[in-house]
Structures are given as structure tokens and as C-alpha cells.
């Protein structure tokens, strides 16, 4: 995500790129769930949330012509073997 915000990712070819984020709020509930994962626990998930919901990220996505899609969008456009796995996961 930092690359998108800094403009380093502007040389990507057109196509599909997957970026996975683990969103969460750094609250008591998530802290309790992530107690054994200090390196990627609730504070880390809060930072992911803060970045993806920031005005800077929105602008960077617009500037780089990045379009958010859902898994269902992929499923509806699939017609080859690799996409059959998506269709099994998301019937």
C-alpha cells in the first residue's frame, strides 16, 4: 500500500492485481483475539484500516486508475479452469 501512496506502483501493467489487507479496530475485543500475535495484531490491523480509508489512498487509487472489485465480480467474469476454484468457494 505504501507503494501506491508514494507513486512507485505507477508502472503496473493493466490487469488484475490482488492486494490483501486485514482490517480491524484496535479495541479490547480484537486485542483479546490477537493476544498471541503482537507483530500483526490489532494495532497492525488498525493501521491497515487507517491507510485504506484515508483520503490519500482514495486519491492514489484514482490517480493510478485502480478499481476496487469484490470476489463475486471475479467469479462472474471467470470461464477458465483457474476460476473454477473461485466458483466452488463462492457459489
Protein architecture, described:
The mean pLDDT is 78. The longest helix has 11 residues. The protein has one domain. It is built from six helices and no strands. It is an all-alpha fold and 91 residues long.
**What is the averaged pLDDT score?**
78
User: Order of SSEs, N→C?
Assistant: HHHHHH
Structural category is mainly alpha
Strand residue content: under 5%
Work out the helicity level.
40-55%
How many separate domains?
1
Give start-end ranges of low-pLDDT stretches. none
- Mind telling me the C-alpha Rg? 16 Å
Count the strands? 0
Distance between the termini: 30 Å
How many helical elements? 6
Main β-sheet, in a few words?
none
- So what's the overall shape? flat
Question: How do the strands and helices of this protein lay out in sequence?
Answer:
Layout: H1 2-6, H2 28-33, H3 42-52, H4 55-63, H5 71-77, H6 81-89
Amino acid at each position: 500500500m505504501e507503494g501506491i501512496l508514494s507513486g512507485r506502483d505507477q508502472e503496473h501493467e493493466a490487469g488484475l492485481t490482488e492486494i490483501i489487507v486485514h482490517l480491524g479496530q484496535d479495541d479490547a475485543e480484537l486485542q483479546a483475539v490477537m493476544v498471541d500475535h503482537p507483530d500483526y495484531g490489532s494495532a497492525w490491523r488498525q493501521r491497515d484500516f487507517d491507510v485504506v480509508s484515508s483520503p490519500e489512498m482514495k486519491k492514489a487509487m484514482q490517480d493510478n486508475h485502480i478499481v476496487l472489485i469484490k470476489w463475486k465480480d471475479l467469479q462472474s467474469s471467470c470461464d477458465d479452469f483457474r476460476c473454477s476454484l473461485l466458483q466452488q468457494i463462492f457459489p
